[in-house]
Amino acid sequence: MNRKRDKGFESPRKSVIGYVELTIIPTVANLNRIKLNSKQCRIYRVRINDLEAPFIYNDPTLEVCHSESKQRNLNYFSSAYTAAVSAVDPDAGHGELVIKVPSELWKQGDDSHLLKVYIEFSLDQPKGGLHFVIHDVEGSMAERGAHVFSFGHHNSTRFWFPCVDSYSELCTWKLEFTIDSSMVAVSCGDLIETIYTHDMRKKTFHYVLPIPTAAPNISLAVGPFEILVDPYMHEVTHFCLPQLLPLLKHSMSYLHEIFEFYEEILTCRYPYSCFKTVFVDESYVQVSSYASMSIFSTNLLHSAMIIDQTPLTRRCLAQALAQQFFGCFISRMSWADEWVLKGISGYIFGLYLKKTFGVNEYRHWIKEELDKIVDYELKMGGVLLHPTFSGGKEKDNPTPHLHFSLKHPHTLSWEYYKMFQCKAHLVMRLIENRISMEFMLQVFNKLLSLASTASSQRYQSHMWSQMLLSTHAFLKSISNVSGKDISPLIKQWVDQSAVVKFYGSFAFNRKRNVLELEIRQDYTSSGTQKYVGPIKVTVQELDGSFNHTLQIEENSLKHDIPCHSKSRRNKKKKIPLMNGEEVDMDLSAMDADSPLLWIRIDPDMSILRKVELEQADFMWQYQLRYERDVVAQEEAISALETFPTPASRLALTDILEQEQCFYKVRMQACFCLAKIANAMVSTWQGPPAMKSLFTRMFCCKSCPNIVKTNNFINFQSYFLQKTMPVAMALLRDVQNLCPKDVLNFILDLIKYNDNRKNKFSDNYYRADLLEALTNSLTPAISINNETRTVDNLNADVRLILEEITRFLNMEKLLPSYKSTITISCLKAIRQLQKNGHIPSEASLFRSYAEYGHFVDVRVAAIEALVDYTRGFECLDFVVVSHKILAMLCKNPPFTKTTESAICNEALVDQLWKLMNSGTSHDWRLRCDAVNLYYTLFGLTRPSCLPLPELGLVLNLKEKKAVLNPTIKPEQSVGAVIDTPFNTEDEDIDMETVHDSQAFIHHHLNLLERPSTPGKEPAFVEQSMLSMPATPIPSFSKDTTSLPSKHRGEHGHHHHEHKKKKKKKHKHKHKHKHDNKDRERSNWHPYSNSPVSGKSLHSPSLSE
C-alpha cells in the first residue's frame, strides 16, 4: 500500500486543509467496503479511481454512554468504552470512516486491480493529534515562535489525517506540506525538495519514506526552527526553537556516541537514511519516537553549566534511539506483542546506561525499576505482559482485579502502562540471565537483518511481515539461536501477572557446621504468585564468599547449606570478598560460634521479587561496610533504619566518608543517619549528625560556619553537598523541634553561598538548601487559639519566611534554570501553611498555576492547590491536564471508603461528563479521568447519588422491560454487549437518509409519561429492545460530493440531531413516527450495536 499526503497549514486559525491518496491492492475480488480511521477530521469528499464514493462517518468514542443514561457505575462505563474502542479497531478491520467502493469499478473489468482512494479533509482547531503552540505576544508568527507538532499516545495518527491507524499495516509514504515561507516542516523520511509558490509567500516540503512504515509512526513538526547539522554525523539533523541553538549544540554533542554504541552491540547499521531530532515547547511527553525522527521536550536542552539535567537528557536521547530500531523500524504484529518491543528497547537502553554511567548506576537503576514494579503489583494487583482473550468476551478477562480492560492500549491506565514498560525490560534481563548476553544480541541482530532485507523489497509487500515482531516469532528466534527452552520463564513472567514475595530467616548449627536457611513465600496476597525453581544464595563467611543454588520446591521451606569455615576469633587473617579483594575486619561484633558475616538471597535480581531477610544488626553493618555491590549496600542501609545503635551510626558515618563508595549510596546513608539520630535522640553524643562531617568536607578550616566558595568539579561531592543539608534538616531534638544550631547552620550556608568562581550553575544546590529549610519546619504551637499573622511569628520561622520571600523576589529578576528555586519556594510556602505558621491562602498558587509560567512551576503550584483544597476547584480553574488528574489520584480529597461533604451529585456528573465525552480527543486523559473516578467512587454506583424513584430496567437477554421502584446502587442495570461492529455479511444501504433519532425520541416521550408507581405499563414496544443506538447519517449519491448540512461538525455527532429533530423532516425522508415497520426494516446494520456511541438502553428514566 502506498500513501501520499498533502497538507496546507494556517497557524492563526489553527487549521489544516489536506488530502490523502491511498493506493490499495485488493486481496479479495469485488471489494465493496474500505474502512479507515479518522477522528476530528471533517471529510469533504471521497473518490476512488476518479469515481465519487459514498461514505459513512461514525465515531462511537466521542460519547461512550448515552447522554440521557443515568448510569454512573464504572463497570458499565468500562465495558461500553472497551466496546466503543473495539468497534473502530483497525487490527480487527474496523474504522470510523466506511467507504463504499462504487460497483461500476468492478463492472469495467479493470485488470490492474489498483484502487486509488482520494480523500479531501480539513481540521479546524484540533484538540488532539496536533498541538499548536502560539504565544500571546507581539510580532509575526515566526517571531512569536509559533509551531505545531503531532502528538498522541498509541495509534493517534487518525486524529490528524485519515489512515489505517495500526502498527501492523505497513506502507511506503510520500508526504507534502505547504506552509508559510518563514517556517520549516520536519517529517519522516528524506527531504527531496522544497518548492516555493509564485508569490514566494508559501513553500512546499516534499518528503519520501521508502521503508514500509505504519501510520502511527508518522509524525510532523512545523515551526521557525533553527537547524543544526550534527558535526560528527552529517545524516543527523537537529531542530530547535529560535535562540536555543547554543543549548542545542551542547545537549546534542554526544549523540554520535549513542549511535556508535547501538550499531556496535547490534552489529547492524541504523535502519534509516537520516535521523532528525526536533525540540518543541509544551510537548506531550519528554520523548516521542517516530520513523527516522524523534520529538523531544525543549526542557531537555541545557548548557554546559548545568550538572543535574545532563544525565537525564542523555537517557532520553538513548531511549529515543533504541526505539528507532525496535518500535519504529521493527513494528509489532498486535497489541499483545507490545511487551517484546518495549522490552528490547528498554533492555538495550540499559546496556547503554551500563557502558556510559557504569555498572553501579546500572545496578542501582535495575533495583529502582524492580522496586517500582514490585510495589505497584503488590498494591494494585498484577501487570500482565501478554494478555490473551479467548473468544474475545469480557468474561474471559485475565485481570479481574483491574478497573480497566487490557484489550487495547486506549483503555489502559497511564500508570499501568509505565509499569508495563518497566516489567517488559526486566523480563528481557531475566531472559538474558537464562541464555547469555551473547545469544541475546545475536537474536536482536537476526531480527534486524530479516527486517532490513524485507524493507528493501519494494513491490513484494507479502515480505513486509518480517518487519512485524510477534511474541511467537521472538521466542522461536531465541530457541533457534540459543537452543534453550525458555518456556517456563515466559509462562511465569509473561503469561502470568504478579511478583514473588520471600521471607528469609536462618540459624547456624554449630555441631554440623551448617547454615539452616528457611525461605517462606507469601502467595495469597494481592499481586503475588508462587515461585518454583532455582534461587541463588550468597553467603559471606570468614574464609570467603560462597554462592549456593537452592531449588525451591512446592513445599520445602528449610535448606541446609554447609559452611566452609570454622569460627575463629583469635587468628588474625584478611578476609576475602566476592570481588577477590582481601580486607581486615574488626570481628569483635560478630557471634563467637558462627563463621557467618552476612547472607544475601537472589543477589543478581534474577527473579521479580521482594525479599525480607532477618539477620542481626552487625551482619547488616558488615554488609554495608564491606560488600562491594551497590544493591547490597542499599539493602543494608534500608535494614539499618530499624537498628538505631551507636554501631549503626558508626557504619553509616564511615560510608559517608568513603570517597570510593557510590554517591547514591552515600546520599541514601544521609537520610538513614538522620532517622537513626532521631531514634537515639536521648542518648546521642556529640554535635548533630553529619554537621562535623559537612564542616570538614565543605567549610573553611579557620571559620567552620562559613562554607568554601563553590567548586563542583567533583560531581560525587557535589551531590553529597546538596543532600547533606536536606537530611540534616530532618533532625529533631527532645521537644521534636529542629535543633537551633542545625537551622542556623543551614541559614549560614545560604548566607555565605558564593558561586562567582564556579564554572557550574548552583541553582539546584540553592533549591536544595531551600528544601532543607522546608524540612526543618515543625507544626506551630498555638496559644489560646490566636490567629496566625506574620507579626506574631516564631523568630526562627520568621527567618525562614524572609529567606523564601527574598529568593522568590530574586527569581523574578534573575530566573534560575527551569525555575528550580521558584518551585522550592512554592513547596516551602505550602509547608508553612500546613504547619499552621501562616494563614492557608490559595491565591499565590493560583497565580503561579496560570498559563504563561514555566510548566514545572505550574505543576508545583497545582500540586499545592490540590493539597490545599483537597477538592476540585482546580478542575474548573485550569485546563484539565494529565498531571492534575494524576495528582488528584495520588492525593484524593476522599476515597470510596470515606465520607466527604464534597462528594455530591454535581461532582459525579462533572467527572462522568469528563470521561464520557470531555476527553475523547486524548486516550491518556480519558484513562486518567477513569482512574480518578475509580479512586473516588470505586466500580459501583457512587453512594452519594439518590436512588431513582422509578426506573425502567431493560433486560436485553430475556427481552423484557421491567419497572423497578428501587434500583440498588451497585446494580448494573441492563447488559452491555461487548461486540464490535459485525457487518461483514450485511450490505450497507447507502441510499437512504435515516432519521432514527426522532423515532427514538418519540418512544422515550411515551415512556417518560407519569405512570402509577407499582403498575407496569400495559405494553412496551418490543422494538425498544433493538433500538438503534446512534443515528448514522449516510448520503445518497447526489449529495456525496457536497459538504452537506448533514455532514456537520466533526462527523455529524449526535448532539446536532437533538437540536434539529424538527427541522430534519425537510430532508428527503418523509417517514413519520407511525410507520414504524418501514423504519425498522430500513435500520442500518450498525445501529444495533451499543458501541455506536449511544448505549442500547436508557436504564433509569426517572419521573
Describe the structure.
With 1103 residues, the protein is of the alpha+beta class. It is built from 31 helices and 33 strands. The two termini are 55 Å apart.
List the helices and strands and how they pair.
Layout: E1 2-10, E2 15-24, E3 33-36, E4 42-48, E5 51-52, E6 55-57, H1 74-87, E7 97-100, H2 104-107, E8 115-124, E9 130-133, E10 147-150, E11 170-180, E12 184-187, E13 190-196, E14 202-214, E15 220-223, E16 226-229, E17 236-240, H3 245-251, H4 255-266, E18 275-280, E19 287-290, E20 293-297, H5 309-325, E21 331-332, H6 338-357, H7 359-380, H8 414-435, H9 437-455, E22 468-469, H10 471-482, H11 487-493, E23 500-509, E24 514-521, E25 533-541, E26 544-552, E27 558-562, E28 575-576, E29 582-583, E30 596-601, E31 609-613, H12 617-626, H13 630-640, H14 646-657, H15 663-679, H16 691-698, H17 715-728, H18 740-751, H19 763-775, H20 795-813, H21 820-834, H22 843-849, H23 855-869, H24 873-877, H25 882-890, H26 905-918, H27 923-937, E32 951-955, E33 960-964, H28 996-1008, H29 1037-1040, H30 1054-1059, H31 1076-1081
Parallel strand pairs: 1-11, 17-18, 18-20, 21-22, 23-31
Antiparallel strand pairs: 1-2, 2-8, 3-7, 4-5, 4-8, 6-7, 9-10, 10-15, 11-14, 12-15, 13-14, 16-17, 19-20, 23-24, 24-27, 25-26, 25-30, 28-29, 32-33
